[in-house]
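Q: Please design a sequence for this.
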């Protein structure tokens, strides 16, 4: 007898529009691939950095993995904040602005009410 077991807490079907997507990191993952084939500018940057790093007489070849591992140690909290800011869509920026306004002014405006107020539309 085959029994289908539904994961606890998971619901099937459409999700509400305003439901936030939760990002779960898979710590079991051990391989990462970076596809920059369509991004000529960054691909050229990678190759120029690798050429500079390998312009030497001794030692093994420095590869992309070595470069990435070194650069990862240089990432600061400010860089993380910049990445987070760049990941926002236009609507998410508007929603964030509305949430900050509601928190600051102790109000509970909807998105439409907030836009009317900010754009001075009567």
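A: Design:
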């Amino acid at each position: 007898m085959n029994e289908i077991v539904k994961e606890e807490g998971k619901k099937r079907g459409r999700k509400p529009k305003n439901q936030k997507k939760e990002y779960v990191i898979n710590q079991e993952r051990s391989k990462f691939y970076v596809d920059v084939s369509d991004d000529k500018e960054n691909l050229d940057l990678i190759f120029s950095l690798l050429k500079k790093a390998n312009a030497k007489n001794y030692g093994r070849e420095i590869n992309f993995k070595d470069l990435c591992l070194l650069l990862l140690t240089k990432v600061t909290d400010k860089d993380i904040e910049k990445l987070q800011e760049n990941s926002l869509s236009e609507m998410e920026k508007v929603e964030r602005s509305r949430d900050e306004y509601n928190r600051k002014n102790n109000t509970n405006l909807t998105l439409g009410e907030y836009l009317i107020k900010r754009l001075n539309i009567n």
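Q: Thanks. Anything notable?
A: The longest helix spans residues 90-105. Residues 1-7 have pLDDT under 50 and may be disordered.
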